[in-house]
């Protein structure tokens, strides 16, 4: 368990002053509470002696009130300092976790579930916060109170104290024995919550698909089964926790019985005064909290350790490949892109095999190939979202593998077929890549990008024009509108290299022609890579690479490719026939 908390140590050190203040306040609170039974002892002994001097009793009462006031201040102090530090640590840890998410590569996310990652950033961090605040309070307060009370009891009457602490070792062994079981079960509970989050996220994101196949009943059953498992694991945890408290309560009651038997005899014999008997009873009642607190501490610390183990798995995951060399400002925009004997495979499946071609600087380059031929993989390699297994990609002989990924990607504008839209306005989705999306000076740039993407006529149909809110993932717009917004978002930054990865597939031929004409006019002298299944779009490009089964099978202009036997000519003839031009 201690190893799990090592990840938290740097955060605790940053807030050492807060924790010092909190623990000092906690010490004041606990120490003050110890004086109350002692004042009660003296008052009862004075009363039992038949004293008529009320001034001493009043003095003791005023001291009790004063001490109670400092106890209240101390309690306020430790809540402010310790809870405040824990909340700040939770915030910093969540920030660092989110930052880590942004540094992880494609391979990590292929093996993770969104719901599980969300659970680690929410539920697990809450458990860490509780462990670093209330867990710490329960541990230090329980330890201090136990030691202090035992010292007072043995100093007052060692024989009576020796009898009444007999049940305490049983509590210790019980708490330690159940601690590991609680941690293991809590980890299973968190994993169950992750599963529920994942299922909910998948259904909410694909509700149209679920309804179109009338699978509501299936997913209700699936969610219900997962919910039952989550409930079962929670009940197992509650059962252990519920068993621990009554047993501790019983054992604490047993100490009271022992005191009544042993201490009562001591009072009758005159060895123990009535005041000391009442004080001992009060101290025993105060010992209930350390005994219960021991179980509470173990529960919180085990939960925190289980959650920190899950969070540590994220922090220990290797970052996406990083290169220290930043991209020179004068580089790449005016340089050619070259694929040199590039190969790539997902596990055992070969996607690209010894690919070689050149994209001239400032050219409009086309790529055509059947589904699954590796077209998108070519782009992912260029953006350094993945790394080639063999070969390299260069900007004018500079290996991009030696360049910082962030600097490299800043050169590109990317419009994918299934581009993601945020739950925000049309304008903000398009201005997403700008440094200050709300800046009114960007209006002309945004309007120009929307004009090239042929979005003006659509804006007139939206209730609030460009300020219309788009549903999550663009659910309230059509496929064609979504692609054009994605294209406008790529165009708005006027990138040195624009990539359109089948980003016009949902458009009709007329709109596609209009958009391509606008792109040609606005991007003269800048590199544009167009991936498309339509020959009608690719005919505007200079050189076209034909990709089949991960290999370049042809590399030429449109006019020459339609005169050659092969895949490009076959697709051209098929599409011409479908268009009624043959």
Structure keywords:
single chain; 582 residues; alpha/beta; ABC transporter transmembrane region fold; Rossmann fold; 3 domains; six-stranded mixed β-sheet; four-stranded antiparallel β-sheet; 21 helices; 10 strands; 10% strand; elongated
Give structural notes:
With 582 residues, the chain is α/β, with parallel strands linked by helices. The chain has a 6-stranded mixed beta sheet with strand order 6-7-8-3-9-10, sandwiched between helices. Strands 2-1-4-5 form a 4-stranded antiparallel beta sheet, covered by helices on one side. A hairpin with a 2-residue loop joins β4 (390-395) and β5. It has 21 helices and 10 strands. It has 3 domains: 3-315, ABC transporter transmembrane region fold (Up-down Bundle); 329-411 and 498-582, P-loop containing nucleotide triphosphate hydrolases (Rossmann fold), CATH 3.40.50; 419-494, Rossmann fold, CATH 3.40.50.
**The CATH architecture of the largest domain:** Up-down Bundle
Which whole number gives the mean pLDDT?
Answer: 83
Contiguous helical run count: 21
Question: Judging from the principal axes of the Cα atoms, what is the shape?
Answer: elongated
**Widest beta sheet: strand line-up:** 6-7-8-3-9-10
| Percent range for β-strand residues | 5-15%
Could you name the CATH homologous superfamily of the largest domain? ABC transporter type 1, transmembrane domain
Total separate domains: 3
Radius of gyration, in Å, reads 36 Å
CATH class of the largest domain: Mainly Alpha
- CATH topology name of the largest domain, in short, is ABC transporter transmembrane region fold
Proportion of helical residues: 55-70%
Structural class: alpha/beta
Low-confidence stretches: 328-332
Query: Ends: how far apart?
Result: 74 Å
């Amino acid at each position: 368990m201690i190893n799990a908390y090592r990840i938290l140590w740097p955060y605790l050190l940053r807030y050492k002053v807060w924790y010092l203040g909190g623990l000092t306040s906690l010490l004041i609170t606990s120490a003050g509470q110890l004086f109350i039974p002692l004042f009660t002892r003296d008052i009862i002994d004075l009363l039992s002696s038949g004293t008529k001097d009320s001034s001493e009793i009043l003095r003791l009462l005023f001291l009790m009130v004063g001490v109670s006031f400092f106890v209240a201040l101390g309690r306020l102090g430790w809540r402010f300092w310790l809870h405040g530090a824990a909340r700040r640590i939770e915030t910093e840890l969540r920030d660092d976790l989110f930052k880590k998410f942004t540094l992880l590569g494609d391979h990590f996310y292929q093996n993770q579930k969104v719901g599980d990652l969300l659970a680690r950033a929410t539920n697990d961090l809450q458990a860490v916060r509780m462990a670093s605040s209330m867990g710490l309070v329960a541990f230090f307060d329980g330890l201090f109170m136990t030691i202090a009370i035992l010292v007072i009891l043995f100093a007052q009457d060692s024989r009576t104290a020796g009898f009444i602490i007999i049940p305490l070792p049983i509590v210790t062994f019980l708490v330690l024995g159940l601690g590991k079981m609680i941690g293991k079960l809590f980890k299973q509970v968190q994993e169950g919550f992750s599963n529920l989050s994942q299922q909910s996220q998948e259904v909410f994101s694909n509700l149209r698909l679920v309804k179109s196949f009338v699978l509501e009943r299936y997913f209700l059953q699936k969610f219900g089964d997962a919910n039952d498992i989550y409930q079962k694991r929670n009940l197992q945890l509650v059962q252990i926790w519920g068993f621990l408290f009554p047993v501790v309560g019983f054992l604490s009651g047993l100490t009271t019985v022992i005191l009544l038997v042993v201490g009562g005899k001591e009072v009758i014999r005159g060895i123990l005064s009535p005041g000391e008997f009442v004080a001992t009873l009060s101290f025993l009642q105060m010992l209930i909290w350390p005994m219960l607190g021991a179980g509470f501490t173990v529960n919180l610390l085990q939960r925190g350790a289980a959650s920190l183990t899950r969070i540590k798995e994220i922090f220990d995951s290797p970052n996406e490949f990083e290169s220290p060399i930043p991209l020179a400002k004068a580089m790449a925009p005016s340089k050619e892109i070259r694929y040199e004997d590039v190969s790539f495979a997902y596990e055992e499946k070969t996607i690209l095999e010894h690919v070689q071609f050149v994209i001239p600087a400032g050219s409009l380059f086309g790529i055509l190939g059947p589904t699954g031929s590796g077209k998108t993989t070519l782009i992912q390699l260029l953006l350094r979202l993945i790394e080639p297994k063999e070969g390299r990609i260069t900007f004018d002989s500079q290996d991009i593998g030696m360049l910082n990924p962030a600097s490299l990607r800043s050169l590109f504008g990317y419009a994918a077929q299934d581009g993601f839209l945020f739950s925000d306005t049309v304008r903000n989705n398009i201005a997403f890549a700008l440094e200050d999306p709300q800046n009114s000076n960007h209006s002309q740039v945004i309007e120009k990008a929307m004009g090239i993407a042929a979005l003006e006529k659509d804006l007139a149909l939206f209730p609030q024009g460009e300020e219309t809110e788009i549903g999550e993932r663009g659910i309230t717009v059509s496929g064609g509108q979504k692609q054009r917004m994605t294209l406008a978002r790529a165009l708005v930054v006027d990138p040195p290299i624009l990539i359109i990865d089948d980003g016009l597939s949902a458009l009709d031929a007329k709109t596609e022609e209009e958009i391509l004409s606008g792109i040609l006019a606005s991007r003269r002298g800048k590199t544009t890579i167009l991936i498309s299944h339509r020959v009608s779009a690719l005919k505007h490009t200079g050189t076209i690479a034909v990709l089949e089964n991960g290999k370049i099978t042809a590399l030429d202009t449109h006019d020459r490719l339609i005169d050659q036997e092969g895949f490009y000519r076959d697709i051209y003839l098929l599409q011409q026939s479908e268009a009624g031009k043959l």
